[in-house]
């Protein structure tokens, strides 16, 4: 992770699972970011207790209220972050917040599709729009023209379940609404990479692996990858990304996944 040097990062869904793991790893870096914005829906709730404990020990950790399904909440979060940054930009936006509804193909519903798509796909779209001015400012303030996560980047947490070419785990978990939302998120990543490249912003879709989180265990099986291993792997991947990697779909080990 020596190559990843960011002044500021925002992680959505930061109160548990992979999001909380990312926050922990950023804080433990030899040269941690000046600001780590940990965004979640209910910062004062019981499910954010671990995040609150971390914030009490790390003055550079700012817990930020954010509901990724609510445009008003997203705009308010962007305004808070801008105020906290005091004129500097946001280097790294990690769209991690996501939900899954356990259902079969025959049992999938309109309600599930809309709710999951709103959180997993529309949320990252709106966050990209809201934080674009701060990402542009970070890119403009970084030396050199090469794209990198240390300069300015949007990282969309995707899943191999969203791969159309080789959808994995169908026998264990059909979750059609989740799969569709992640396939759409991959396309959003491609669109963002095309639209934001001129502003110096790298965009990538990242599969964290089958991780030992609440969502990962929902099949009843124990996933093979720990949160720490996944997060450390992803941060290593992010530290190595350059111009040639924008718009790609990678896993936590840096392997290219099929769309």
Descriptive terms for the model:
259 residues, alpha/beta, 7-stranded parallel beta sheet, 39% helix, globular
Mean pLDDT: 94
| Tally of strands | 7
Low-confidence stretches: none
User: What is the approximate shape?
Assistant: globular
Order of neighbouring strands in the sheet with most strands: 3-2-1-4-5-6-7
What's the total helix number? Answer: 6
Q: Gyration radius, to the nearest Å?
A: 17 Å
H-E string: EHEHEHEHEHEHE
Head-to-tail CA distance between termini: 27 Å
> How is the biggest beta sheet arranged?
7 strands, parallel
Q: What structural class results from the helix and strand content?
A: alpha/beta
DSSP helix fraction: 25-40%
Strand content: 5-15%
Tell me what the structure shows.
The chain has 259 residues and is an alpha/beta fold. It contains six helices and seven strands. Strands 3-2-1-4-5-6-7 form a seven-stranded parallel sheet, with helices on both faces. α3 packs parallel to α4. The longest helix is centred in the middle third of the chain and has 31 residues. The mean pLDDT is 94.
In brief, what are we looking at here?
The chain has 259 residues and is α/β, with parallel strands linked by helices. It has six helices and seven strands, in the order βαβαβαβαβαβαβ. It has a seven-stranded parallel β-sheet, with helices on both faces.
Write the layout of secondary structure elements.
Blueprint: E1 8-12, H1 17-27, E2 35-40, H2 49-57, E3 61-65, H3 71-85, E4 92-95, H4 110-140, E5 153-157, H5 176-196, E6 202-207, H6 227-240, E7 249-251
Helix pairs in contact: 1-6, 3-4, 4-5
């Amino acid at each position: 992770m020596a190559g990843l040097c960011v002044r500021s990062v925002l992680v959505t869904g930061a109160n548990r699972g992979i999001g909380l793991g990312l926050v922990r790893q950023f804080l433990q870096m030899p040269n941690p970011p000046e600001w780590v914005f940990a965004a979640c829906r209910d910062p004062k709730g019981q499910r954010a207790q671990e995040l609150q404990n971390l914030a009490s020990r790390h003055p550079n950790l700012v817990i930020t209220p954010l509901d990724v399904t609510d445009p008003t909440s997203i705009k308010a979060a962007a305004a808070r972050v801008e105020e906290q940054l005091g004129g500097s930009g946001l280097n790294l936006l990690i769209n991690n917040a996501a939900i899954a509804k356990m259902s079969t193909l025959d049992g999938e519903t309109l309600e599930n599709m809309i709710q999951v798509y709103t959180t997993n796909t529309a949320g990252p779209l709106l966050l990209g729009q809201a934080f674009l001015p701060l990402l542009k400012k970070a890119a403009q303030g970084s030396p050199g023209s090469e794209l990198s996560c240390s300069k300015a980047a949007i990282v969309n947490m995707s899943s191999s379940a969203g791969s159309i070419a080789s959808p994995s785990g169908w026998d264990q978990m059909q979750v059609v609404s989740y799969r569709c939302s992640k396939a759409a998120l991959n396309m959003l990543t491609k669109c963002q990479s095309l639209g934001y490249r001129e502003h110096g912003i790298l965009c990538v879709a990242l599969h964290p692996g089958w991780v030992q989180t609440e969502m990962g265990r929902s099949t009843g099986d124990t996933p093979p990858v720990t949160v720490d291993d996944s997060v450390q792997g992803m941060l290593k991947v992010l530290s190595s990304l350059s111009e040639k990697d924008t718009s790609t779909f990678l896993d936590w080990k840096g392997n290219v996944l099929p769309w």
